[in-house]
Amino acid sequence: MTYQSTDAFNVPELYLLAAAFGGNVLFGLPEKEIYQLKGEEVFEEAHKRLIEKQILSPDGKVTKAGAIIIQAIEYYHQSKKYVRINNLMFAFSSHHEDELILLVELEEKSLYKLFVVSKAIVLKMLGERFPIVIREPQEEEKTYLKEELTNQERHEIEQYDPGDSLLNLEFFHLDEKPQEATNPSFYQQWLAFTNEENLFMVDTVARKYYQASQYWFLKILFDEMEFPYKEAN
């Protein structure tokens, strides 16, 4: 299983599929209770759509394709760690260490696509989608990892709009307590962007601004995504 895709699913459909293994919480999605309060019709409609997509058979049984999707959702549900990169949420399977479960948010908090992807393909995809990942470091970046900006430098960067080049990185480690944004072992958020060939990273929780080296940025990315490092020749 290297790269499997499904059609797009809305939140009630995903929770209906998660019910197959008793899953009532799917990390990063709106709470199930929100939809339960809207009445049974919401899940009846979701059931009909899953039949139309041949995820369920006309008599409501799980099809072969449905079983594969349910397993991917179960692996997503079981993950103890999640990494969000812009609208991409990655979960980690203890069953297949070379694969990631990817939930792509197509419409905010409403429509998603689900993939099971090898880490090699994910790394290639990130490089293609986010140029900052394959950015060539400047020569002087070999001399530092990160340097905190002065107040003046920070003020200038705060006025800068990186536009679509902004990379939002969020890390969630569910085994770490307390599960609070102020606990960096549980949660971190970094914004990464370039300005005039320089790489900048912002620790949004600590509210610290850095000029960063490409090596430091990639170390954070590789460590959190659990990508293997290539050994130097």
UniProtKB/TrEMBL annotation:
Task: Specify the species.
Answer: Ornithinibacillus xuwenensis
InterPro entries documented for this protein: EsaE (IPR031682)
Specify the superkingdom: Bacteria
Quote the protein name from its UniProt record: DUF5081 family protein
Pfam families documented for this protein: DUF5081
